[in-house]
């Protein structure tokens, strides 16, 4: 399973936001929705071997983690509003330390990055890391941030992670996911 963990520094942790104002009122939820779409959509198909975790750190009740699982995912269309509606619905559920499902393939629980790092060992996507094209073996899990840099506390708990770069230019989070998946696709195809 390929995994992407995206930190949403301002993303709301309740379903009380308008799908018409995801950049403002939802704390840049639009960035996270684009990451969801980049993680799953192919032309006329979905990637079933991907999980995308959204670590939500905004008001009013942080942190929460939303999980999209490709092998169970239903009702996702290739637009930001569709992903936003699924996030809004899952955030309306009461949650605790275990994932709770709202619609097929969409889950929520309390907890954030520290908890996820006990469950998986991602590489951190960083423009100063090792170029992904120079790596012999690629990790299956990746950590990246939304439109903001990692905070000091996030940097402190991730300083042990390997750092990988997707190229010389700094890309948006959703574009970075696309580049990583493209590199994985190329390697999988060449090994057939």
Model description:
There is one protein chain. It is globular, with a radius of gyration of 16 Å. The chain has one domain: 3-Layer(aba) Sandwich (Alpha/beta knot), CATH 3.40.1280. The strands form two sheets. The protein has an eight-stranded mixed sheet with strand order 6-7-5-4-1-9-8-10. Strands 2-3 form a two-stranded antiparallel sheet. The protein has five helices and ten strands. Helix 1 crosses helix 2 and helix 1 packs parallel to helix 5. It has about 190 residues and is α/β, with parallel strands linked by helices. About 30% of the residues lie in helices and about 25% in strands. It starts with a strand and ends with a helix.
């Amino acid at each position: 399973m390929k995994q992407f963990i995206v930190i949403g520094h301002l993303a709301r942790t309740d379903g009380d936001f308008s799908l018409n104002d995801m950049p403002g009122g939802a704390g840049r939820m639009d960035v996270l929705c684009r990451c969801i779409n980049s993680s799953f959509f192919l032309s006329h198909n979905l990637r079933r071997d991907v999980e995308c975790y959204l670590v939500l750190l905004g008001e009013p009740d942080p942190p929460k983690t939303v999980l999209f699982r490709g092998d169970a995912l239903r009702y996702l269309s290739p637009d930001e509003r569709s992903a936003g509606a699924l996030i809004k619905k899952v955030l309306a559920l009461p949650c605790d330390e275990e994932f709770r499902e709202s619609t097929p393939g969409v889950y929520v629980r309390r907890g954030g990055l520290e908890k996820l790092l006990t469950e998986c060992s991602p590489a951190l996507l960083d423009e100063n890391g090792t170029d992904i094209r120079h790596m012999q073996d690629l990790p299956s899990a990746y950590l990246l941030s939304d439109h903001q840099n990692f905070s000091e506390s996030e940097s402190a708990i991730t300083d042990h992670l390997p750092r990988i770069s997707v190229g010389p230019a700094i890309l948006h989070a959703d574009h970075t996911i696309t580049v990583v998946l493209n590199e994985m696709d190329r390697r999988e195809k060449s090994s057939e």
